[in-house]
Each structure stands twice: as structure tokens, then as C-alpha cells.
Amino acid sequence: MSINLLSITFLQVTRELLSGFGVTCLLFILTLVLALPLGLVVCFGSMSRFKPLRWLFRTIVWIIRGTPLILQIIVVFYVPGLLFKVPLSSRFLAVTIAFVINYACYFSEIYRGGIESIPKGQYEAGQVLGMNKTQIFFRIILPQVFKRILAPMSNEVITLVKDTSLARVISVVEITKISQQLANNYAIIWPLFYAGAFYLIFNGLLTVLFRYLEKKLSYYKI
Predict the structure, then answer these.
(1) Under a CB-based contact definition with an 8 Å cutoff, are residues 24 and 164 in contact?
(2) CB-based burial of residue 164 (10 Å sphere; 0-12 exposed, 13-18 middle, 19+ buried)?
């Protein structure tokens, strides 16, 4: 009888965690899809020759990188309602906005480091071939940048998977939030470790993917 009860509990916990993991994956995907291109925009802004624009973007990056993500989530969710009387109706939207802004700033610094690491001779070679600045950047520079930034970018992406657990601070029901609720409701601790297994498997798959990409891009190595 106790074995059947344990099986039922395990199945129930698995179903609950899978529903929460779906929210975690959605937050992860949306953040990645939106933050990667936005990070490139922020990177261009922070490298702009127009000083006011450059310092504006660098100040934003400094603030975002210098404050905890959990604080940024709280600010995005509560401040619009407190200051402008326009509260965000969706907690998931608030946490997505906070994540996108945060990771765009981190990605921008990775992009900037990769771009600045390319020798000037690469630009000159493109000019000799008759390319304009846009063609040089997208056809010559950017492919090499992708190879150079893949390792630090993979670290940030894996960190993103784990950071999604911070969404629970404003009661977004993701996998960690559900595991805590299950632990409290049933007075058992193993759902917390079970949730950790989801993160391990997900990050393991991402690690394999990034290693594959590193091998595929190895022909850009100089």
C-alpha cells in the first residue's frame, strides 16, 4: 500500500514539475531569442563614436551588471505601478522583460569583447576586396566573432537556465516554485532535488550542443 502511495505521489510530483518546467523553458527561450539581438544593438550603442550615446549605453550596462537580477525583477514588476500608476498585469511578462534587459547587457559585453579582439587587418582586407563597412562586418568579422564568443556565451546561457528560478520571487509558477510548494504541502524534501535533476539534464544537453557548435565553427580558428 505504501509502495502504491509512493508511486502515485511520484507521478503527481512529476506531472507538477513538468508543468513548471514548461514555464521555465518558455522563459529561457523568450529571453534567449530577444536578448541575443538586443545585446548586439546595445553593443553597437556602447561602441558608438557619438559620445553621449556611447556613455548612455555604457551607463545602462553598468547599472544592470552592477545590481542583482532579483532586484531588477522586482523593479520591473512593481515600479511602473508605483510611479506611473500603470501596473503590469502579467507577472510572467514582467519577469521576461527583466531577464531580456539583464541578459542583453551581459551579451553586449561579450559581443564587444569579441568584436574588439578581431585584428584591424581583417577590416583592411575587406576594404581591399571592395566591400563596404556593412559587408565587412557581416561577412568577415561576425563569423569570426561567433567563434571567439561561443565559450563565454555558453556560460551565460547555462547561467540563464539556472537564473530562471529567480522568477519565483514575484510568484511566477516555474519548476522551482512548484517544487517548493510540493515540499511544503507534503512535508517532503525530495521534490527540490528532483527539480534539480531537470536543470542538470537541460544544462547537459546545452553543453553537448555548444561543444558540437564549437567543432562546427573550428574552421574559423586562425
Answers:
(1) yes
(2) buried
Map grid coordinates 511520484 to a residue: 10
Residue 151, Cβ density class (10 Å: 0-12 exposed, 13-18 middle, ≥19 buried): exposed
Residues of 179-190 as b/e, b for ≥16 C-beta within 10 angstroms?
beebbeeeeeee
CA proximity to 128, closest of 117, 115, 140: 140
CB atoms within 10 A of CB 120: 7
Model confidence pLDDT, tens digit, residues 67-88: 999 999 999 999 988 888 888 8
- Spatial distance between the Cα atoms of 145 and 221, rounded to a whole number of angstroms: 10
Q: Is 183 helix (H, G, I), strand (E, B) or coil?
A: helix
pLDDT in tens, 146-197: 888 999 999 999 999 999 999 999 999 999 999 999 888 888 889 999 999 9
pTM: 0.89
What's at 21, amino acid-wise? F
Which contiguous run of DSSP H or E holds residue 172?
none
Neighbours of 72 (CB within 10 A): 19
Question: What is the per-residue DSSP string for 98-156?
Answer: HHHHHHHHHHHHHHHHHHHTS-HHHHHHHHHTT--HHHHIIIIIHHHHHHHHHHHHHHH
Q: What is the pLDDT of residue 138?
A: 80
